[in-house]
Design goal:
With 520 residues, the protein is of the alpha/beta class. The chain is built from twelve helices and 21 strands. The chain is globular.
Length: 520
């Protein structure tokens, strides 16, 4: 048996647990006030008396459903859901052995979306976040009772877990000022807009952790496939998949490197997972690869959802090449786990941040944004551009309303077929014409917002690879870029900086995404 198979077997064994005798029990992610995905086969798993019949009565169905619990008390069922609407139902589970019932109340049928990522998706309406106009936004939350919220508690596990832990009392909550106070602002703002546009109940799941790198959100199987982490997975297994042993092992490597010894000298005390394969920081506040996937994400895959909203990447900004591999792999893995290869996956490109520089060709955030955009080659993906809503001095910009609006536009257009503009014109190619580079787009000049005179955001380079501020102007449906410093241009970049200037927008005001003509 190879090491990878052994890891899978070890993980599977940890998911088997003993069951106490008694009435029907459900994981906390199924509760009163929840939203079930419309027109689907809603999956449920639970525990009951071993060998007992479990009868399920869904108020929207004419006929009860009966399933049998196994010898370990476990049972599973699929219940068809109708077309969504603003009507509440009950769902009752009865243990045939003891006659005891569990009833879920105020259940609604609609659309369910998962929000995940790091701190900019986690950032709450109030709490530590205090988004733009947060007091007004909290006060307005009572007006959206058909928006329901499920908040996954932050917790970790080196091994895959069957159940997750739910925050805020352990279940779904009806939207209210108290419910949104510590809930993802983007999730809440997205949910309320979708409820208004679709006239359906909307369920939002907040599964986030600030500061988490992307490698925390994938499985060991995915991490071991060419991402630079193959050695890490083997290290974990050699340490028996025991978290404390793993952390002690890597801390010893850090200490050795800090002392100037030759043993793994590339490791340093504040290292995050570099291409060498070293995992995240190993102090008490650090993350280990896969631990959020195991504890927070994997259990949710038993619940049907419409799609995913993702905002993450700041923690991986120093490793864009690795991100360009892991991010699409993560999307593919999540779709496989939800048995939905076309599941919509919409993500936010990193916002502008840090001091603004006119020429910054080696921008870390520029390369990471490009790595994020590479995932657009996957079907049913979309990217909300945020390079104009950030703040130079705050990595957590306050205008989460606009970010949520842009995600909602993607969902409305591409998932629900609404006639809304969800993106700006996109880069399509270039031609060198004398001392200028002419940029082509997949749109006409009329599709851009009106601009007069010089257009900001361009840099241009010649054969020496040195970039200068570009002078850009409209030339028909193209943008012509030049510089008095570059006689023979070969490359142009647009919006390529940590905090770039925005010169191009679509006619609805959405910004054009960053791009470059080179691959240096």
């Amino acid at each position: 048996m190879d090491l990878m198979k052994a890891c899978v077997l070890t993980c599977a064994m940890t998911m088997m647990s003993t069951h106490a005798q008694g009435a029907v029990k459900l994981p906390a992610m199924w509760s009163s006030d929840m939203v079930l995905q419309q027109q689907s086969e809603a999956r449920f798993v639970g525990k009951a008396t071993p060998g007992a019949d479990v009868t399920i009565v869904a108020q929207w169905q004419k006929t009860p459903l009966t399933v049998k619990a196994g010898a370990d008390g476990r049972w599973s069922a699929k219940i068809k859901t109708p077309e969504g609407g603003k009507k509440s139902y009950t769902l009752e589970f009865t243990d045939g052995a003891d006659g005891e019932s569990l009833t879920l109340e105020n259940i609604v049928i609609g659309e369910v979306w998962l929000c995940s990522g790091q701190s900019n998706m986690e950032m709450p309406v109030a709490g530590w976040g205090k988004v733009k106009d947060y007091e007004k936004e909290m006060a307005a939350a009572d007006a959206y009772p058909w928006v329901r919220l499920l908040h996954v508690k932050r917790h970790t596990s080196v091994l895959p877990r069957e159940d997750t832990v739910i925050d805020n009392g352990g279940g779904w909550r009806v939207c209210s000022p108290e419910a949104v106070e510590h809930f993802s602002a983007i999730g809440y703002f997205f949910g309320r807009q979708m409820e208004g546009e679709l006239d359906l109940p909307i369920g939002i799941i907040d599964c986030t952790w600030g500061g988490s790198p992307v490698e925390c959100w994938v499985s060991y199987q995915t991490l071991s496939r060419g991402s630079g982490f193959e050695g890490v997975v083997l290290d974990f297994m050699r340490k028996g998949m025991d978290e404390q042993s793993i952390r002690r092992y890597y801390q010893a490597l850090v200490d050795s490197a800090s002392a100037g010894k030759d043993f793994r000298p590339e490791v340093h005390p504040d290292a995050y997972a570099h291409k060498s394969g070293f995992p995240a920081t190993v102090d008490n506040d650090g993350f280990l690869p896969c631990e959020l996937f195991n504890a927070m994400l994997l259990p949710l895959t038993r619940m049907d959802i419409r799609g995913v909203l993702w905002y993450q990447g700041e923690q991986n900004a120093d490793r864009p090449d690795q991100y360009a591999c892991l991010f699409p792999a993560m999307i593919a893995e999540w779709r496989t786990l939800w048995s939905n290869p076309g599941m919509p996956f919409y993500f936010v490109q990193l916002a502008n941040y840090r001091d603004q520089k006119e020429v910054e060709p080696h921008s870390e955030w520029g390369y990471l944004r490009e790595a994020q955009a590479s995932a657009l080659h996957l079907p049913a993906t979309g990217m909300a551009i945020a390079t104009d809503v950030g703040e130079a001095k705050d990595i957590h910009p306050k205008n989460k309303q606009e970010v949520a609006r842009r995600l909602a536009l993607l969902a409305l257009n591409r998932t629900y077929g609404k006639n809304v503009v969800c993106s700006a014109p996109e880069y399509a190619g270039y031609t060198i014409v004398g001392n200028e580079i002419h940029i082509d787009f997949n749109a006409k000049a009329a599709d851009f917002a009106q601009t007069d005179g010089e257009i900001d955001g361009f840099i241009i380079a010649g054969h020496d690879g040195r970039f200068y501020k570009g002078v850009a102007r409209k030339e028909g449906d193209r943008i012509a870029v030049s510089s008095p410093e570059v006689k023979y241009p070969v490359a142009v970049r647009y919006c390529w900086a940590d905090n770039p200037k925005i010169g191009l927008r679509g006619k609805t005001g959405l910004p054009v995404a960053p791009f470059r003509t080179d691959n240096w």
